[in-house]
Design brief:
Distance between the termini: 29 Å
Largest sheet: 5 strands, antiparallel
CATH class: Mainly Beta
CATH topology: Methanol Dehydrogenase, Chain A
CATH superfamily: Quinoprotein alcohol dehydrogenase-like superfamily
Helix content: under 10%
CATH architecture: 8 Propeller
Number of domains: 1
């Protein structure tokens, strides 16, 4: 999950702003590589953007398709008291989601009624006294707890406390504080891999500025195994508010940072406003790449989550990682040669510090095995000024296959299924588009008032489309 605007202290996004290999839940079928989520066959959506590769693609979806998308209708709506900007996670006939009232929910996929709801707390930050509860999207998977295979909901709560909940009852199995109350916050979503759970730490609205960290915890006990901080020692800054991405074949972890201008150090080092690669087994540093000074903007954070994808360039297959920045540029790297810089880059939007107002991009991209999809804020398409956009990109060159002009910025990550792409905008519009040409097949507007924004990433699984709103409404649509 991710913050929206440092200046207004509104860091709210599922962001975090995404298919994880879950025992008994996900079956992989890949013709090239085990980490290529484009070939995944899923019966669940167990984590943010679907997998540790964070592709945002559900290749097994058949019920919501090119023929049925235009017939989508609301199946149910669930109203709550807290803003929702976490992506709904679906498994075991339950939808898991959290809100800023502090409750993590497991609800029935049939009508949205709660099977359980656990209060993980909510509080205000030091700037605005605005309520913050759960921004983090859960990861739900089976792990060993006290020698027993247990379906666990891993999620971050208030005051930078990280929790493992029994996914069938909501009971707290363990909890580990990772930050300081009212100073630190967890916007991002966990990745579970090889007996560890990975989660990043940020400041709560930069009030005050704190030090960004990446944690590795034992899934069974919550014991902190390793902690990674930036290369400046005890300096503040370098917030991590996009989620960790893991190449499970290589055993490497990727994340992005921000806040060079907020750092207390005169020398910001090379891991602020950067993409960083670590060893997943111990969080040891491998390499990083920092945005060049001539491309930086004020408050030019990386605020999204890296996407793993593949591209054949000049006859050579490259395993890639891509991510946008608030400067409006999408960067695409060979993931094994990150320090060499991007193989290509695209200008998606006019850079700016305030993504809700259209500055740059904090929307995580999606990869369907053939095409990369990216969204952003203020831009110009065919001479027309657009408050937002969505584009289909050639993974080898970044060339735009098609472009769609939108009337508001896109903050949430994108979701794709065969033939379709789903995006939501800051003015509470939900669009289902034909992924071949960008034509709109279905749209929905949550017009409930000034508090209505779609900042949560949509989820499509097993014939239902789920989406949460900052007005506290959780929706389910189906054909």
């Amino acid at each position: 999950m991710k913050k929206k605007n440092d200046r207004s202290c509104e860091r709210i996004l599922s962001i975090l702003s995404f298919l994880i290999l879950v025992e008994g839940l996900v079956v992989l079928a890949s013709s090239e590589s085990t980490y290529s989520a484009a070939y995944a066959q899923t019966v669940s959506w167990p984590t943010y953007l679907g997998s540790n590769a964070r592709t945002g693609y559900n290749g097994a979806e058949t019920l919501i398709n090119l023929q049925t998308a235009s017939n989508l209708k609301m199946l149910w709506m669930r109203a709550t008291q807290g803003a929702i900007d976490s992506q709904p996670v679906v498994t075991n006939d339950m939808v898991f989601w959290g809100g800023h009232d502090g409750f993590e929910h497991a609800s029935s996929i049939t009508d949205g009624t709660d099977i359980w709801a656990t209060d993980l707390g909510h509080s205000a930050n030091n700037c605005t006294n605005r309520q913050h509860g759960i921004t983090s999207t859960a990861t739900v998977t089976t792990v060993q707890i006290n020698g027993i295979s247990t379906l666990v909901d891993f999620v971050a709560g208030d005051s930078a406390v990280f929790y493992a909940l029994d996914a069938n009852s909501g009971n707290i199995l363990w909890q580990t504080p990772l930050g300081i109350e009212r100073n630190s916050y967890i916007y991002d979503s966990p990745a579970v891999y090889n007996g560890s759970v990975y989660i990043g730490l940020a400041a709560l609205g930069q009030c005050p500025v704190s030090q960004g960290k990446m944690y590795q915890l034992d899934t069974s006990t919550g014991t902190i195994q390793n902690v990674y901080t930036d290369d400046i020692g005890n300096c503040t800054g370098g917030d991590i508010w996009g989620s960790p991405t893991i190449d499970e074949t290589a055993g490497t972890l990727y994340f992005v940072t921000g806040d060079a201008f907020q750092s207390t150090c005169s020398n910001h080092g090379n891991q602020f406003d950067a993409i960083v690669e670590l060893n997943a087994n111990d969080l040891s540093y491998i390499v990083s790449w920092q945005i060049p000074r001539n491309q930086r903007t004020v408050d030019g954070d990386f605020g999204s989550t890296p996407t793993l994808f593949d591209a054949t360039i000049n006859g050579v297959l490259h395993h890639m990682v891509g991510v946008p920045n608030k400067n409006g540029i999408y960067y695409a790297f060979d993931r094994f040669k990150i320090s060499a810089g991007p193989l290509w880059q695209d200008n998606l939007a006019i850079g700016g510090a305030d993504p809700p107002s259209g500055g740059g991009s904090i929307s995580s991209s999606s990869w369907d095995g053939t095409t990369l999809y990216a969204a952003a804020g203020n831009t110009v398409i065919n001479g027309v000024k657009c408050s937002g956009s969505i584009r289909a990109l050639d993974p080898a060159t970044g060339q735009f296959n098609w472009q769609v002009c939108l009337h508001a910025s896109v903050l949430a990550a994108l979701m794709t299924v065969p033939g379709l792409i789903v995006t939501v905008t800051n003015n509470s519009m939900l669009f289902v588009l034909n992924s071949m040409n960008g034509n709109t097949l279905f749209k929905f507007h949550d017009g409930t008032g000034s508090k209505s924004h779609f900042w949560a990433s949509p989820t499509i699984v097993n014939g239902e489309l789920y989406e949460g709103n900052t007005d506290g409404n959780l929706y389910a649509f189906g054909p």
